[in-house]
Specification:
CATH topology: TIM Barrel
Shape: globular
Strand content: 15-25%
Distance between the termini: 31 Å
Bound molecules: coenzyme A, zinc ion
Number of helices: 12
Strand order of the largest sheet: 1-2-3-4-5-8-9-10
Radius of gyration: 18 Å
CATH class: Alpha Beta
Order of helices and strands: EHHEHEHEHHEEEHEHEHEHHH
CATH architecture: Alpha-Beta Barrel
Number of domains: 1
Length: 311
């Protein structure tokens, strides 16, 4: 009997982090089609939308309609981003069972993203987490711009540790260490996540990388080596942040799946089906989407198609 493969969990954020940044309007029905395609590929956790001000992010103005319609809610853990109590109320009304608050590591980034100072953002995030948990809702907290802020530059690891600690103290079950603009390098990831894992334990942490400097894969591997087994990723590498200039797309789900599976980890995701979700994401956004494995995956598909024809 082969040894059981260790699981790496991919939390798909394309429908939120990905679509929030697209200039084209993607309808609620089309978002559901994309999520259905991701579900068919075996994705088990999905951040589906955010309950933020529709003025701030018009792309997610349909969150209240979208969430109750999400498919396969029995086997897929859906979450939604909420910035404050108002967002939590809306999320609860829509049936959300897991929320994510977003606390940026710097004052300027919080002001640009959620119109709060760092202190306000910490207080509001903690309050939202407390209220969610009291209501039986699972809560996680993003610590955004955890390595570098587009406005304030390098972020000290001690600050990220302190903010994470405050979110755990408020009752968050998980903290997501997020390289929102894709500025981190593996050495920094290794250092910060080593400390985070030592202080909080790997089981309560996940990591979120963007591929701006082509280091998302290297960073994910560095995080894995520190014990992290849960990663955010976005189908086709969709993504960016409208409030963080210079951020490119997220780590592409298909790239992480290729890397982790080839290294012997089980993601539960079927690459062929995932490719269909990538293609759909491209159709819906009108963009050429796809991670760094695109050329290779396409060649594999062509090879399979030739084999089918010769059989
Ligand atoms: N959902 C919907 N509407 C909300 C809301 C929420 N979660 N929170 C506040 N609002 C509404 C208020 O009701 C008010 O509406 P009105 O103008 O019709 O009276 C308006 O937004 C302003 O409220 P206020 O509390 O003053 O918020 P603000 O203008 O300071 O904005 C946020 C704060 C957090 C609501 C806003 O900055 C935001 O939604 N940011 C999200 C950014 C984001 O999603 N970034 C990407 C992900 S990291
Ligand atoms: Zn992001």
């Amino acid at each position: 009997m082969p040894a059981m493969r260790e699981t790496v969990l991919i939390n798909e954020v394309g429908a939120r982090d990905g679509l929030q940044n697209q200039p084209v309007h993607v309808s609620c029905d089309d978002k559901l089609r994309l999520i259905e395609a991701l579900a068919a590929a075996g994705v088990r956790t999905i951040e589906a939308t955010s309950f933020v001000s529709p003025k701030a992010v018009p792309q997610v103005a349909d969150a209240d309609q979208l969430f109750p319609r999400l498919p396969h809610a029995d086997r897929i853990a859906y979450s939604a981003l909420v910035p404050n109590r108002r967002g939590l109320e809306r999320a609860r009304a829509a049936g959300v069972k897991e929320i994510a608050v977003v606390l940026s590591a710097t004052d300027t980034m919080n002001r640009r993203n959620i119109n709060m100072s760092l202190d306000e953002a910490r207080a509001v995030s903690a309050d939202t987490v407390r209220a969610a948990v009291a209501d039986g809702v699972r809560a996680k907290a993003y610590v955004a711009v955890a390595f570098e802020c587009p406005f304030e530059g390098a972020v000290a690891p001690a600050r990220v540790l302190a903010l994470s600690e405050s979110m755990f103290a408020a009752g968050a079950q998980e903290v997501v260490i997020a390289d929102t603009i894709g500025a981190a390098a593996p050495t920094a990831v290794m250092r910060l996540l080593r400390e985070c894992v030592a202080q909080f334990g790997a089981a309560r942490l996940s990591a979120h990388f963007h591929d701006t400097r082509a280091m998302a894969m290297a960073n994910a591997w560095a995080a894995l080596e520190q014990g992290i087994r849960k990663f955010d990723a976005s189908v086709g590498g969709l993504g960016g942040c409208p409030f963080a200039p210079g951020a490119a797309g997220n780590a592409a789900t298909e790239d992480l799946v290729v890397m982790f599976e080839q290294c012997g980890y089980d993601t539960g995701i079927d690459l062929e089906r995932l490719r269909q979700a990538v293609a759909l994401a491209g159709t819906l956004t009108g963009r050429a989407v796809g991670g760094r494995t695109t050329t290779w995956l396409r060649a594999q598909e062509e090879k399979r198609a030739r084999q089918v024809r010769t059989v």
